Fold these 3 entries.
Entry 1:
Amino acid sequence: MEGFFQRYLSLYRPLITKLNDLMSTYELSYSLWQVIFYIKNHGASTLVDISNYYQVEKPTITRRVHRLEELEIVKQIPGKDRREKIIQLTERGEEIYKECRKKITDLEHSMMHGINQEEQITTFNTLPKIKNNIMKREGNKSE
């Protein structure tokens, strides 16, 4: 299916712009939201956990976490190893998560307007399969 990636990428930028606008009230961007979302859904986590999940360099996640600490959305808690930084949401972070999650859900619903349930489910189930194929291909560079 020629042109698939172009169609996907043409959707990505406007979506990120919408999400950034939606979260600007909280001084957040989509990249900061990713950290909040990960911690909310995986519990207190290390910087390495988050960077591995999103396949982003650890210094990038460190900068995001520092910004979220400034906003009092996350805090560090002691780990087993003093060098290990464990991050969790603060009470304020939990509240902001709930408010943003509702706004994002509303945005998702509006973006799916006019798309029947079956098509929505197919798309929802297909995207992770595409990601998995990409990840398998990256793991096998000799192809």
Entry 2:
Amino acid sequence: MARIHVASWQETYRGLMSDEMLDDPEFVSTRERFWTVGLTDERFAHHRIAVAEYEGELIGIAESAPPTDADATWSQQLNVLYVLASAHGSGAGAGLLDAVISQGEAAALWVADPNPRAQAFYRKHGFVPDGLFKEEYGIKEIRMTRRDVDA
């Protein structure tokens, strides 16, 4: 999972994030600790985590959790959804999204801007920009939200 996380960041954020961060020899071990804690620590027992694989190899990861944004009116926040570039268009991303956020469930996420491919993917799945933005890891991010379709 850590290797997919790092490889996806390198594919997605090259040119948006510093090469120094993306190529840090400790990057994989940092992400290994992130996933080990996320999968084993009781504090994260309510998080939803999924992986996608193809022919026995991991190609994607996803994680959602209860929202942390103070103004949240949704039940889940997508924190991680990465699919290797070689698997883009395979349906893995949609499968991962559905695995960690139920179809039609009110949710939110933060996505890099610019990242037109990811933003188009989220729009296709009912998310729209709500006008808020922040900067993290030196990257501008916009928040996208989706209302509960039953509301």
Entry 3:
Amino acid sequence: MSNFIKNANWRYATKKFDPTKKVSNEDIEFLKEAVRLSASSYGLQPYKVIFVENPELRAQLQPVAWGQTQIVDASHLLVFANITNFGETQIDAHINNIAVTRGLPTDALKGYGDFMKSKITSLSEDNRNVWTSKQTYIALSNLLNAAAELGIDVTPMEGFEPEKFNEILGLTELGLNATLVATIGYRHAEDDTQNYAKVRKSNEELFINL
């Protein structure tokens, strides 16, 4: 039987990480693959995931992440960044990837590519940026669930200043915008939050049957 529900009950947004415990390279590769396999609209994956390993950079990011200690204490720091002004260039690259992966001529995929372009490029740049930023949340959910399966803690964060993250990490020049942060590691024994009962709405409150 699946341990999914058990794992979901076990995980929580860790408030204090044990800085002496590091996630193994093998487990990091597993988590990367879980993120890589995440669902996204049209399979386009309109984002990048940045692993911030440099401790000096992490120290610079902490003040613009509300001073949260997870930024520097967790084993790994990930920044999910949506691709800004997503358009024809990225769609063409995706079509080429499909052709290569599935052994198809690109001409056979022209109709699909044109369909995506008609739906995406017709949006304003602001709306396209909102759309690509939403895709990062899907990837984050895969990370949360995969990490819980390994007994690894993840804290998803929206409490940071995206513009400052973009500046410190040089994301704007790369056509990227920080949308989400996730810290990965192992909960500290002193983090009392791990002992709190999980609070969620009841089925009756949450679900509507029509």
